[in-house]
Amino acid sequence: TRTIAVSGSASGIGKALTELLRARGDEVIGIDLVEAEVVADLSTEEGRAGAVEGVLERSGGTLDGVVACAGLSGPLTLAVKVNYFGAVALLEGLRPALARAERPRAAAVGSISGTQPVDEIVLRSCLNGDERAAVEAADEAVDKGRGRTLYPSSKAALAQWLRRSAVSPAWAGEGIALNAIAPGVVLTPMSAPLFADERMRKVMDEAVPMPLNGYADAVVIAEALAWLVSPANSHMAGQVIYVDGGAEAVLRGSEV
Ligand code: NAI
Prior knowledge:
Layout: E1 3-7, H1 12-23, E2 27-32, E3 38-39, H2 45-59, E4 65-68, H3 77-99, E5 105-109, H4 120-127, H5 131-143, H6 150-166, E6 177-183, E7 186-187, H7 192-196, H8 198-207, E8 216-217, H9 218-228, E9 240-243, H10 247-252
Parallel strand pairs: 1-2, 1-4, 2-3, 4-5, 5-6, 6-9, 7-8
Helix pairs in contact: 1-9, 2-3, 3-5, 3-6, 4-5, 4-6
The structure holds 1,4-dihydronicotinamide adenine dinucleotide (NAI).
């Protein structure tokens, strides 16, 4: 049995992944604000430390996989705290436990939004590991009506951190495959409000064109994440894979 920690396990993609992995016989240690094996708030330093400690306790100190899925959208500073700092703290904090496993794998959930315009100060502060500066810049963006850049900034920073880290001695050097899935629009409680509003839906369809099969069910993303943390994935490192109905190819064309 492989033991895999999944954040955001109580809803949407994380929940679908948890069910899929359990059905395959893996042991899942879920992390979420509610209804999880490890209840923790990944927006705070104490919460992140508690999450790492809780997972280490339950796993006995060795982990075969970690998936950082918890996140939220919206023009909020909180998105930067959870989507970037929460995800990185969880992955970094559990890295030593992964290094002890025989075929360790880690994955994060990015977003097609990571290809959209960002707040450069927020992005740079994230990559510098300076949460205080990132939060300050994010608060300012919200004040100035530029809060919409925060979600893309958090996901772009996560993708860049991941590409850098995945090939470093700490990850690749320890045999840990680290990659991300970047979804387009997925039908989950997070995206539900967008569908309730006809105008919002139009804006979204223009921002995220999905010529292949349209909006995805959460299980589609879960299947891809499950493969990333499976033993079969022995040689992929630092990749951000768009499972987005073709949106990235439409938007970025020949950029590969
Ligand atoms: P969701 O809202 O259904 O699930 C997110 C889970 O994360 C929830 O259970 C929530 O409690 C948890 N979470 C949020 N803040 C937390 C915190 N501070 N501490 C601990 N747990 C926390 O959303 P969904 O759609 O399943 O999203 C999962 C991931 O997929 C997110 O990272 C999101 O940004 C990403 N994503 C979602 C897309 C979509 O269209 N639904 C598109 C692209 C990316």
